[in-house]
Amino acid sequence: MEFLNDVLVQPFADMAAAPDFLLQVLWEGLVGGVLYALIALGFVLIYKSSRIFNFAQGIMVVFAALTLVGLYEKGVPALLALPLTLVVMLILAMTIERVVLRPLVNQPDIILFMATIGITLFLIGFGELIFGGENKVMITEQLFIPTGSIVFEPFGGFVSIEEKDLTAVIGAMVLVAALLVFLNKSKIGRAIRALGDDHQAALSVGISLSTIWVIVWFIAGVIALATGIVWGARAGVSFALEVIAFKALPVLMLGGLESVMGAIIGGLAIGILEKVFEIYWGQPLLGGNTEAWFAYMLALFVLLFRPQGLFGEKIIERV
Questions:
Q1: What count of other Cβ atoms lies within 10 Å of the Cβ of residue 286?
Q2: Which single residue of 25, 242, 262, 310 has CA 20 to 30 Å from 78?
Q3: 3: enclosing H helix or E strand
Q4: Whole-structure pTM value
Q5: Residue 67 and residue 37: Cα distance in Å, rounded?
Q6: Within its chain, how far is the Cα of 304 from the centroid?
Q7: Tens-digit pLDDT profile for residues 273-287
C-alpha cells in the first residue's frame, strides 16, 4: 500500500504543493526536448531522402561546433566565422555525396550504414588533427547570445529561466518552422518528400538524386551547427558531445524514423517526460540518474504496440 502511495499519489501531491518548482522542471525538460528534436531532425531528413541511417549526425554536431570555435581562435570574427562554418558544412555535404554515397548507390542498406560509421571515424580523426582534442569554450557572447537569467515568481514561488536556453528554444522554433515551410512549399522540398515516398518514381520524373543528397546533408549540417552552438553554450565543445546523438534514437523510435513531425513531438515529449520522471519518481524511489535510461524504456514500450512509432507509416506487405 505504501508503495502504491509513493508511485501513484505522492508525486502528484508534490507537484500540487510546489507548482512553481513543477514549472521549473517542465521548462528544463522543454529545453532538453527541443535539442533532442533538432538532432532527430537531422536523422529523419537524411533517412527520408536516401534510406540511410546517418550514424555520423552526432559527430557532425561536434565538427560544426569545433569549426566555428576554431575559426574564431584563428582570428576570424565570430559573425564571419558563422557563415564560413556553413560553407564548410556545405563542402562536407558535397564531399560525402561525391566520395562516399555516389559510388554506393543501389547497395544494401547495411553497406550505407557502415559507410556513415566510416564518416564518423574519419571526422573524429580529422577533427582532432585540425582542432586538437582538448575541450573548448563556445563563443556565446561573441555571437550575441545572452547569458543572463530571467526570474519569475509564479504562485508566490521562484522560477529561473536562463536567457541562453530561451534563445535556444526560440531559435529552434524558427529553424523548425523554416524547415517545414521549405519542405512543404518549395520545389526542392517537394522533391525531397517525393524521394522519401518513392525513390524510383521520383527518379523517373527527373529528380536528381545527387543534388537532393547534397541538399539534405547540408541541411543536416545546418541543424548540427545550431545544435552544437546550443549544447556548446551549455556544456562546452568537445568530442564528448557526440554522445548526445544517442538521445535522438529513442526520439526516432517514438516518433517514427520517417516523420519530421514525429521527430519534433517525440523530442519534446521525451525531454519533458524524462525530466518529470527523474524529479518526481526517479530521485525519491530509484536514487536518481533515470534520465540515462527512461527515454529508451518509453520508446521500447511504444514499439511493443506500434513498431513504426507514433507517427511512422505502417508498412503492409502483400504476399
A1: 12
A2: 242
A3: helix 2-4
A4: 0.87
A5: 23
A6: 24
A7: 999 999 999 888 888
